[in-house]
Design goal:
Blueprint lengths: L2 E6 L4 H12 L6 E8 L2 E8 L2 H10 L6 E7 L14 E2 L5 E9 L2 H10 L9 H12 L4 H11 L2 E9 L5 E7 L4 E4 L4 E4 L11 E4 L5 E5 L2 E5 L5 E2 L4 E2 L15 H7 L1 H9 L3 E2 L4 E2 L8 H6 L2 E6 L1 H18 L3 E5 H4 L10 E7 L5 H12 L3 E6 L5 H5 L2 E4 L12 H20 L4 H22 L2 H11 L4 E6 L3 H16 L2 E6 L16 E5 L6 H12 L4 E6 L12 E4 L8 H19 L18
Parallel strand pairs: 18-19, 18-20, 20-21, 21-22, 23-24, 23-25, 25-26, 26-27
Antiparallel strand pairs: 1-4, 1-10, 2-3, 2-4, 5-6, 6-7, 7-8, 8-12, 9-10, 9-11, 11-15, 12-13, 13-14, 16-17
The protein binds 5-amino-5-deoxy-1-O-phosphono-D-mannitol (M6R).
The site of 5-amino-5-deoxy-1-O-phosphono-D-mannitol has 17 residues, from helix 9 and helix 16.
Length: 608
């Protein structure tokens, strides 16, 4: 989604803004721009398309200045076009503003401004806000911004500069992340820490409703009543190398190959093998609370929702607590049953997904305890939940979620183990699960070593128009996830289905042109899945089968076999998802798709 970066200090802001915007590219965008303040006033450069286009514009008409703001836009109001790109200028040319989010009452505000003679050059809600700041300006930029925000309804992360009040960036947040980066004689603002990580690791996260005035030599945070606030300084512990491709062709491939390490990181210090138990320091649930939970709701979107489905089975299997899984976007628009003993687990890689955040707030409002499974440290969900389990998978830059998914499943298994051991799960069974968890990183490594086999398979199927992914039990969600990976980066239509449900509709699609990926490890439902494979074979579908040992039942039945190491049924999704990630990746690359930034998609979806 949209990205914001800002700089005030002694250096020329333009290269810093461009560098920051490039670091935000992964979030998805369709146009970009910068505005800088210097002795000559405000200079704005914008371009539709990639940041390289903006660089070309800057090469032809350079700009320079020690204070600047930059933006990558993901279109909401008006198509991708230079006129709709940010920063937007006020009618009198004194104010430049960048904005993430949506001003919902912009049409009404625009009408009022038009009646006062304001002219609009874009289709955006942002230009309306910019002119409203001009209209309300009375001597101090922050006062005008505050007054404008009081009139605007909706969500925002904004940065504003003005020739009339130079030397400062005014930033504000409601529903769209923003932070202040602290440097020595210079300060930054950014919607995502990766934009400024090369320059500082000390940041102050703004909360919803916060505003900040950021200058070269300091910053001040205050609320909508203009009361100064004391927000803590946090330290980012990511390394710069973690947000670089490090020799891989794409971030997605790097992140797939990182999984042996990321799984270890998710489990580090949390698996107590001898007790068959897990240690989860941040969940903030007492022994009694853990025992009195009588219902779990898991809410999430996209890939995180798929891990939620696996979490449902894990918790019901190990702890015998009833679990409901809810799409976050649906949860708050119905009337869910939440009891005082409901635990609401909120899963989000980014910790910023607007629907998931809203669902968590709704669950809290209804009295549930909330537990966040989040990857990005310091993100909004991580700061607002009652307790949490950080995934520690490191920054995930590829839009297609890979390492976060496997870490989510492992974190859910750790939680289910804890809930189960507090109840009826035996220590013997607990130890078996703990050992199987600890074996996962090496097993993932074995799968990755066979990536060339999957690449060859991708060559064979890269021109397919459709794919079906089928699995049962723990691997029905794996099928959904495999299909999502393929469709989002290769643009091949793919559907995930419970294998047996296929005969109630999708079977009509099967002919010799339909590749069907079966996820069939040797688990409790293996024989049943083989029957489903027979049904596809009888209709001449092309069968790619993921299984976990040599199976005579599969001989002559499947066209291709992908072998994964054996593990407990409940952990098979972790292993099975890795070859599916690789298959999607190689097919997308062979089709020439932009794997890390697929069309229309954003890394973190911060609008409803
Ligand atoms: O950051 P989140 O986990 O909350 O993101 C949820 C979805 O937007 C995300 O998983 C999306 O579906 C990915 N593109 C999947 O690869």
């Amino acid at each position: 989604m949209c990205g914001i970066v800002g700089y005030v200090g002694s250096r020329n802001s333009v290269p810093l803004l461009i560098e920051g915007l490039k670091r935000l590219e992964y979030r998805g965008y369709d146009s970009a721009g910068v505005a800088v303040l210097n002795g000559h006033g405000l200079e704005t450069r914008r371009a539709e398309g990639k940041i390289a286009k903006l660089e070309q514009v800057l090469a032809v008409t350079p700009a320079e200045g020690g204070l600047g703001i930059g933006h990558t836009r993901w279109a909401t109001h008006g198509p991708p076009a230079e006129r709709n790109a940010h920063p937007h200028l006020s009618n009198d040319g004194t104010i430049a503003l960048v904005h993430n989010g949506i001003i919902e009452n912009y049409a009404e505000l625009k009408q009022g401004l038009k009646a006062q003679g304001y002219v609009f050059h874009s289709d955006t809600d942002t230009e309306v806000l910019t002119n409203l700041v001009q209209e309300l300006y009375g001597g101090r930029l922050e006062d005008a911004v505050l007054a404008a925000l009081e009139r605007g309804e909706g969500t925002y992360g904004i940065a504003v500069v003005s020739t009339r009040d130079p030397g400062k960036i005014v930033a504000a947040r409601k529903g769209s992340p923003l932070l202040v980066g602290l440097g020595d004689g210079e300060h930054f603002i950014a919607s995502d820490a990766s934009a400024i990580l090369a320059h500082t690791r000390e940041v102050v996260y703004l909360n919803d409703g916060d505003l900040a005035v950021v200058r070269k030599d300091g910053y001040r945070v205050f609320d909508m009543k203009a009361t100064t606030l004391d927000r803590p300084v946090a330290k980012i512990d990511w390394e710069l190398a973690q947000i670089e491709r490090g020799g891989y062709d794409h971030f997605m491939l790097k992140e797939i190959f990182e999984q042996p390490q990321t799984l270890e990181n998710t489990m580090r210090g949390r698996v107590v093998l001898e007790d068959g138990m897990s240690k989860l320091g941040g969940i903030n649930l007492s022994h009694d609370e853990l025992l009195t939970i009588d219902q779990v709701i898991i809410t999430a979107c996209g890939t995180s929702w798929h891990s939620a489905l696996i979490g449902e089975m894990l918790i019901e299997d190990l702890a015998r607590i009833p679990v409901e899984v809810e799409y976050a976007s649906e949860f708050r628009y119905r009337n869910p049953i939440v009891t005082p003993n409901t635990l609401c687990i909120v899963i989000s890689q980014s910790g910023e997904t607007a629907d998931t955040l809203a669902a968590m707030r709704e669950a809290k409002r209804r009295g549930a305890k909330t537990l966040g499974l989040v990857n990005v440290v310091g993100s909004t969900i991580a700061r607002e939940d009652d307790g949490g389990i950080y995934l520690h998978a490191g920054p995930e830059i590829g839009v297609a979620s890979t390492k976060a998914f496997t870490s989510q499943v492992v974190a859910l298994a750790l939680l289910a183990l804890k809930l189960g051991r507090k109840r009826q799960l035996s220590s013997v069974r607990g130890r078996e699960i703990a050992q199987a968890l600890l074996d996962l990183p090496a097993q993932v490594k074995q799968i990755l070593d066979r990536a060339p086999e999957i690449e060859a398979l991708a060559e064979r199927y890269k021109d397919a128009q459709n794919f079906l992914y089928l699995g049962r039990g723990y691997n029905f969600p794996t099928a959904l996830e495999g299909a999502l990976k393929l469709k989002e980066i290769s643009y091949i239509h793919a559907e995930g289905y419970p294998a047996a449900e296929m005969k109630h509709g999708p079977i009509a699609l099967i002919d010799e042109n339909m590749p069907v990926v079966f996820i069939a490890p040797h688990d409790a439902v293996f024989d049943k899945v083989v029957s489903n494979i027979q049904e596809v074979k009888a209709r001449r579908g092309r069968i790619i089968c993921l299984t976990s040992r040599e199976e005579h039942m599969l001989e002559g039945l499947v066209d291709h076999e992908i072998r994964i190491p054996p593990t407990l049924d409940m952990l098979t999704p972790v292993l099975a998802s890795v070859p599916l990630q690789l298959l999607a990746y190689y097919i997308a690359v062979k089709r020439g798709a932009n794997v890390d930034q697929p069309r229309n998609l954003a890394k973190s979806v911060t609008v409803e």
